[in-house]
Amino acid sequence: MSSAATITARQPEQGSYVPYLALIGAMLVIAGGASFAKHLFPLVGPQALTAYRVGFAALILAIVFRPWRMKLTRDDALRIAAYGAVLGCMNLVFYMALRTLPIGIAVAIEFLGPLSLSLALSRRPIHFVAIGLAALGVALLLPIWNQGRGLDPVGVCYALAAGVCWALYILLGKRTAHLPGGQSVALGMAVAAVVTVPFGLHSAGVGFFKPELIVGGLIVAVLSSAIPYSLEMVAMRRIPARNFGVLLSLEPAIGGLSAMLVLGEMLTVAQWVAIMLVVSASALSVGFDAKGKAAAQNAP
Length: 300
Fold this sequence. Notes:
300 residues, mainly alpha, 13 helices, 82% helix, 0% strand
């Protein structure tokens, strides 16, 4: 076999990892954005910061992808509207949870949504093993082992609501996967802005228009919405929904590491063990999925 033929034969195997890299990149960027956003809470509050994040992301994506050029059927328009509404609600309730919960804990509770989705969609034993590892890692991230420290019940409710929205976001994102990725994300983000911006305006009042806060909100929008949601849409097109949910088990670990580096929140031994568990779950899911694709491609 010539070298050119070898390269051609290897391309599908290499390409199978692109959506996984896109998803990991999205989680890294969004974790940094969440840590930076929490710095701004005392200045503007979570509702207004959500409005900045979603509103600016919608503008950026509209300029880049020009979604008005895409022709939509009535059914596709309804799918994007539902996707965008859930996206806006997910951003809002998650930032409300961050008011009183540490980032790693809030993301861990939120992850119960996609984790439940993964369990519901799983069929092979190996997927249940991966989900079990991820679930144990999430459990270790929760501060239930320290009896002297409780969680704010309102913050927990907001984080649980974000988990429900997260699961719906995965399902509804899959329903728009047949549309051009960038344009569908841009339209969905525009709908999310319609949902969230009124809350921000009501919360901040005239302070919403302070230039220094607007600049901070723009940075949060780029890090927390515009970049990661575009990468996630790439991932959604190629990763099965059950694997997508398990891979998102990395989110609490990445959030905890980001909080440690940016906000000075140190990790306990139990949290380090949790990181190893969720990384193992994600690697197991990716490895077996890629192995299955390679076997299918090599089958006579």
